[in-house]
Specification:
Blueprint: E1 3-4, H1 7-31, H2 37-63, E2 64-65
Length: 66
């Protein structure tokens, strides 16, 4: 199923994907500095969730036509 999106909608999806990429990078970087196990778990969960969200955004972008 192809969905038609306005250009500004596609740009917003790209912007969200870029933000989620930064979130993953920051969380993975912070894991190297964290000693608290609870905080480490939170960071790992953030990486996992952000990766899932990026895959979903990629799916939206791959099916969309402008």
């Amino acid at each position: 199923m192809n969905s038609t999106y306005a250009l500004h909608e596609m740009l917003e999806v790209h912007e969200i994907a870029a933000f989620k990429t930064v979130c993953i990078t920051k969380s993975k970087t912070m894991q190297a500095m964290v000693t608290d196990p609870e905080l480490m778990l939170i960071l790992q969960q953030d990486v996992t969730l952000s990766q899932q969200q990026l895959q979903e955004l990629g799916g939206v972008l791959s099916k969309a036509t402008v």
